[in-house]
Design goal:
Strand order of the largest sheet of chain B: 14-18-19-17-16-15
Radius of gyration of chain A: 13 Å
Number of helices of chain B: 20
Shape of chain B: elongated
Distance between the termini of chain A: 13 Å
Structural class of chain A: alpha/beta
Strand order of the largest sheet of chain A: 2-1-3-4-5
Helix content of chain B: 25-40%
Radius of gyration of chain B: 39 Å
Shape of chain A: globular
Helix content of chain A: 40-55%
Oligomer: heterodimer
Distance between the termini of chain B: 39 Å
Largest sheet of chain B: 6 strands, mixed
Largest sheet of chain A: 5 strands, parallel
Strand content of chain A: 15-25%
Chain lengths: 124, 739
């Protein structure tokens, strides 16, 4: 079964980048451009892994994690946070919020796919 | 470079820069909400994020510094003093430059950005921003794990496989012994121990041992409370860092210790595949555990259910500490990006459509014998439809002047900085829409005018103080629509033009005769002359070797005109009047000297057939028209264009036009043929600039007619002191370029 990835980011550039990498890797890619839309799309798509930005209008990434973790739909889905920060404090905050892992922007396609495989258990 | 995602980045960045400028602008006002600051922060943040993806290092590191300051502002750690506001706005300018540079593949010299970086750092106090090399972030950085406070679990001795406490110099590190006890939160964060073990198995051979000793008895078993722990011996050549990397995401969610595993030689262990099988087995044990009830009856207890208290609400309440969760953020209008070429093709086609309609209408008019009222009506519908389409297509090309105006506020800041003056830009009518080409081609002239206004228009601080004016000079820029034209004004509140000095400069440079007597209006016009340099002034800022003549040429190139008005002590105002569209205009088709010409309807005030007594000859070839108690100069168009003079016997028909230089003026024509919409076809690429003629058009019957430029005709006549119009010998055939 194809792995379903949902990416939530307000930057079209990032969404397009993720799309190209994800589709290249053979994943089924969906995206949303803010937190609210992301949570809605989550319910529709039921992805195997969620990638979310933190800084977004309407609802930020922490809100997304919170909504998914407290929700009823597969609330233990791996959630990866996209961050431009490599600071430990921000990572700790993402982890405390319930994120499974993080991807430091700028990302390269190899690391991105490997992180996804790492948290989903998808074996190459 | 044709990377579509890179294109997306630059398009998006343009919007972000606009949002950034807008946000900063409103942060200057007394009232702005937290969301404004957030949007500014997000704009910088997103630019940084995207730039990083394309390895635009300079952009990333500058955006990072900018972002750090914005973050401090956002968290309330930084007061927005005017100085800091200034730094932020100048930094936004610099960011825009860096984006531009990145787009065109240039680099911005470091000393340019260094100044801004220093200013940004100064906002925070020293040492808060460390210069960031984007490549530090590029790889997945390993987080250094601080393992000291972790509670060591006592692995039962009998489960340990590898040698543990054998400090012997013969022993070497063959791998690591990892003690791992997940907390409940590790599972709820979406982690799976089996995946971690798989990752470890990628590093080498692993021997996991599960410790079930802490497992509660069946009676008190809580599936959410994980009490399992593992001791894993990993035989590998990899560094400890690599092992830590595996646990990067779960650090803090488990008890973890990683110690060197010592041994003389490889110990026989299961290979990775076998280990994996074992891991799967363990997890299946785990999964099976909760479904057995304690009293060994066959009734299954409920499977570990997620807490049902919270539901997935479509719009969860924003948390108080997360300012960015504003729900009423403006949702962007749906837009469509279309290749400009396609739009222009459409515009061309519509132009042809209009000509085609005119031809059919004309043919119909000629066939009076077989006149068909229905057909006439349909043709009229056709005309209206064509006009609708034309307006619709024009609207596609229309853009608000906002982006143009926004750019100008930076010019004001730059100009003010470099001249040591204080200046602010006030804009009015930002929503006024004009053709895209106009927006693009006005950028340079406006930049020059704005620089000019700050540099020459505004007085120095001392002079302003003496004049009792506020130290802060104001440049007012306004755009509006007026009867088919776009009016753009640039006004300063400076001292006004220094006419004696302008006159003196013009005479010194030999632009006018030393004894020339010029009216005030004529002196003002001197500013637009080629060769009238501003180099004698204190700075070369506005000059840059370019005079206002270039501005005027650019405006005329757009089919517009520029005028100047000044009030001593109160300031100077430049007015640019442009046609709404560059492709089609309403014109009056007239006959002059036997030739058909088109006069733009916007410049015509009225048409008059004067009584013979209303015309007064002055001197040899000057004529004045007396109308409603005033005397208005009469211009013979045929003579100005070098046509054969019309029959002098008949009373001429006069078109009253408004000219920039001389107010109202009357143009002599022989007859008016029609009033219609004409499609403008530029002559410049073929004939160069022809004075008095702005373009040409194709009439309904297929004839070509020249479009008259009334201002040039009048201007060429009234300022012979410094302008020599080049007459047309045979209009429509030969045209002399005005060198």
């Amino acid at each position: 079964m194809t792995l379903k990835v949902l990416a939530i980011d307000d930057s079209k550039t990032i969404r397009e980048l993720l799309r190209s990498v994800m589709e290249e890797a053979g994943f089924d890619f969906s995206s949303a451009c803010d937190g609210i839309e992301g949570v809605e799309r989550y319910a529709e798509v039921r992805p195997d892994v969620v990638i979310t930005d933190i800084n977004m209008p309407k609802m930020d990434g922490y809100g997304v994690i919170d909504a998914i973790r407290k929700g009823v739909i597969d609330n233990r889905v791996p959630i990866l946070v996209l961050t431009t920060e490599s600071g430990d404090k921000l990572k700790a905050r993402a982890r405390d919020a319930g994120a499974t892992g993080w991807i430091v922007k700028p990302f390269d396609d190899v690391s991105l796919v490997s992180v996804i495989r790492r948290v989903t258990g998808l074996v190459t | 470079m044709s990377n579509p995602i890179l294109d997306t980045f630059f398009e998006e960045t343009e919007e972000l820069l606009e949002a950034l400028a807008e946000g900063l602008e409103s942060m200057q006002g007394a009232e702005f909400d937290k969301e404004t600051v957030n949007s500014v922060f997000r704009a910088v943040h997103s630019i940084k994020g995207g730039a990083g993806a394309f390895k635009l290092t300079a952009l990333v590191s500058f955006a990072h510094s900018f972002e750090t300051v914005m973050d401090a502002v956002r968290s309330g750690g930084l007061d927005l003093t005017p100085q800091i506001m200034h730094t932020l706005m100048r930094s936004a300018d610099c960011l825009a430059d860096l984006v531009d540079a990145a787009r065109s593949g240039r680099t911005v010299p470091e000393e340019v950005t260094a100044g801004f970086l220093t200013a940004l750092e100064a906002c925070l106090g020293e040492g808060e921003i460390e210069a960031v090399d984007a490549w530090d972030n590029f790889e997945f950085a390993a987080v250094t794990l601080d393992l000291s406070p972790l509670t060591e679990i006592d692995a039962p001795a009998e489960t340990a496989v590898g040698p543990t406490e054998m400090p012997d110099q013969d022993l070497v590190r063959v791998g690591f012994r990892i003690n791992f006890r997940p907390h409940a939160v590790l599972f709820s964060n979406g982690h799976e121990p089996a995946l971690l073990f798989t990752a470890l198995a990628d590093l080498g051979q692993i021997t996991p041992q599960i410790d079930l000793s802490q497992l509660a008895d069946w009676a008190s078993f809580d599936p959410e409370d994980q009490r399992l722990s593992w001791t894993i011996d990993l035989r590998t050549d990899e560094s400890e860092l690599a092992v830590q990397d595996v646990f990067e995401f779960v650090y803090g969610l488990c008890d973890l210790s990683i110690a060197p595993l010592l041994g003389p030689m490889p110990v026989e262990t299961a290979d990775a595949a076998a280990v994996q099988a074992e891991v799967v087995e363990i997890t299946s044990v785990l999964a099976a555990l909760p479904v057995h009830s304690a009293d060994s009856s066959s009734t299954p207890v409920t499977a570990p259910a997620p807490p049902l208290t919270a539901t997935l609400a479509p719009s969860p309440k924003p948390k108080a500490d997360r300012g960015e969760q504003t729900l009423d953020a403006k949702s962007p209008k749906a837009t469509l990006r279309v290749d400009l070429d396609r739009v222009d093709r459409l515009i061309n086609a519509v132009g042809e459509l209009i000509i085609n309609q005119a031809m059919i209408a004309q043919r119909l008019q000629d066939m009076t014998a077989t006149r068909d009222d229905d057909l006439v009506m349909h043709i009229e519908d056709y005309r209206l439809l064509a006009r609708d389409i034309q307006e619709g297509v024009m609207a596609i090309r229309a853009q608000p002047v906002k982006s143009l105006f926004q750019r100008m506020s930076r010019i004001v800041r730059e100009a003010a900085d470099s001249t040591g003056k204080l200046a602010e830009l006030v804009t009015v009518g930002e929503g006024t829409e004009v053709d895209k080409t106009v927006v693009e081609r006005l950028a340079d002239p406006l930049t020059h005018m704005i620089r000019n206004a700050v540099d020459h228009g505004l007085e120095s601080r001392e002079e302003r103080a003496t004049a009792g004016k506020p130290a802060m000079g104001t440049i007012r820029m306004a755009a509006s629509h007026r009867s088919g034209s776009v009016i753009i004004t640039v006004k300063d509140d400076g001292a006004g033009l220094n006419r004696p000095k302008i006159l003196e400069i013009a005479k010194r440079k030999g632009l006018i005769a030393a004894d020339a007597e010029l009216s005030d209006a004529e002196i003002d016009q001197l500013l637009f002359m080629a060769g009238f340099s501003t180099a004698s002034s204190i700075s070369n800022l506005s000059g840059r070797g370019v005079g206002l003549d270039v501005v005027r040429n650019a405006v005329q190139g757009l089919g517009g005109r520029i005028s100047i008005a000044t009030t001593p002590g109160l300031g100077t105002e430049f007015t640019i009047i442009l046609p709404l569209t560059l492709a089609v205009m309403d014109g009056m088709v007239v006959t002059v000297g036997g030739h058909t010409l088109v006069v733009p309807i916007t410049s015509i005030i009225e048409t008059i057939r004067p009584l013979p007594g209303d015309l007064h000859r002055i001197g040899t070839d000057e004529t004045l028209l007396a109308i409603r108690g005033r005397m208005i100069p009469v211009v013979d168009v045929a003579r100005s264009l070098g046509f054969a003079s019309p029959d002098q016997g008949s009373t001429p028909l006069l078109l009253l036009v408004e000219s920039e230089t001389l107010g109202e003026c009357a143009l002599v024509v022989e007859s008016v043929q029609d009033q219609r919409q004409v499609v403008i076809k530029s002559l410049e690429s073929n004939f160069g600039k022809v004075l008095g003629v702005s373009a040409a058009t194709v009439l309904g019957d297929g004839r070509i007619a020249l479009i008259l430029d009334p201002d040039a005709i009048v201007g060429g006549r009234v300022t012979p002191a410094f302008q020599t119009p080049t007459p047309l010998s045979h209009a429509g055939r030969t045209a002399h370029a005005n060198a």
